[in-house]
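Posted in: Structural Biology > Protein-Ligand Complexes

Title: Requesting predicted complex, nicotinamide-adenine-dinucleotide in pocket

I'd be grateful if someone could produce the 3D structure tokens for the following input. Sequence and ligand are given below.
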Amino acid sequence: MAEKLRFGIVGCGVIGPTHAAALASLSDDAVLVAAADIVPEKAQAFAEKYHCKAYSSLEEMLESEQLDVVDVCVPSGLHGELACKVMRSGRHVIVEKPMEITHERIEEMLRVQRETGRKMAVISQHRFDDAAVQIHKLVQENAFGRLVLGNAAIPWWRSQKYYDSGAWRGTWALDGGGILMNQSIHSIDVLQWLMGPVKSIRAYTDTLVHKMETEDVAVAVLRFENGALGTISATTGGYPGATTRIEIFGDRGSAIIENDRLGYLHLARDDAEEIGPYGGAKRQTGAGEEGGATASDPAALKASTHAMQIADMINAIREDKQPAIYGELARHPVDIILGVYESARTGKEVTL
Ligand SMILES: NC(=O)c1ccc[n+]([C@@H]2O[C@H](COP(=O)([O-])OP(=O)(O)OC[C@H]3O[C@@H](n4cnc5c(N)ncnc54)[C@H](O)[C@@H]3O)[C@@H](O)[C@H]2O)c1
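-- Reply #1 --
Done. Output follows.
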């Protein structure tokens, strides 16, 4: 059996424990050795719970421990700085989403990654959901025919208490945005993975419910490179939070992912006979109801898809290949979101 890879985690807040749980589920291949947080009590409590060593800074952890990989779980606007420190220290890095919040810092991360020859994976765990994988495979088989429309709807609720729970939340400097950069990036990533690259964007954003710098509602119209149109509609002001939907429509089929599960799929190739001129849609049942934990509480996130992505990184390191979601791919949803912000700010169409 190959030796276990030694992991460290920096950032012991909401998402750090999901990484620890994911690593625990991969105990044949990985061991969590250390955790760091600038709040020493948080590092200490985390280390006690997950049986590893506590540090009060990333630097101290990197200097003191023999590590293969560090998972960066700190506020979004610190991802680049910390990920570059990890790679410069000779370790591989797994960065939480979003990869970073500006083009310049993303480019710096990619430059350091190339210079150091380390591997960098960026978490986008919903690409590992069964429904997303299944629909992506069907898109590759051209089962939807000519793609015509792709929509992502993220009608969520976050209380003011949520935004007040961390000084970084809802700020331009550290969250990099609101409902789009923080919560919707998953759905936007899956949408563009299924529909293909986005070419241009027209958008509106606003802050209507919360006391925060960044947007809590956004609507964008997309033109994909393949000519299809699409929309993003998202809010954290929609009490109490409703179904997250990703919809794909083509002239040979349609699919709807609801709360990360397949809610609807109808392909012309499976029809026994041709449907009439007005179409016809049979609903699949049983989808959607249980999958939406992140709509209400990110701490309730299941670690299984994080574990799949970490397992993919372990495999990439052992076999010296690219992880499934490497930096050049992970930047796409951030580029789209920054395009939405620019269009909303300038009132103009933005071409990516
Ligand atoms: N993949 C997902 O579904 C998902 C879910 C939640 C959060 N996230 C991402 O994870 C990141 C963290 O989010 P969170 O909700 O866990 O935030 P959080 O505020 O709960 O935790 C962040 C932790 O980082 C620590 N920290 C801050 N600066 C540090 C530094 N320089 N060195 C060491 N520790 C430092 C803080 O003390 C805090 O404990 C964000 O980028 C967020 O977008 C991803």
